[in-house]
Amino acid sequence: MYLNASVYSGGHKNIYYYKSNGNVQAGLSKEIFIKNLTASIWLVDVFKTDTENYISNISNIRRKINSYNGERMLMFSIHYTFNNAESRYKSSRSGIEEKQRL
Length: 102
Prior knowledge:
mainly beta; four-stranded antiparallel β-sheet
């Protein structure tokens, strides 16, 4: 299981005052077929809270911006490992033969 949260506390930056915002990402990963195949699924911005809200005051003109970054998504991936370390041929005899050769 994968869970990631990020929070921006807000504050002043140059001529802008940013409001706090954040997002949560969650995912699951499962190994299948003796650890050779891994399937994963993630959801980005679970609660649709990754917004950009700020206020600017320039020459007595107050501008208020509320926007959503639009990065809410569902991702799916499959990863296959060819010849992983556990399935490689191992022999103690080959090591003995190599020592005798030297």
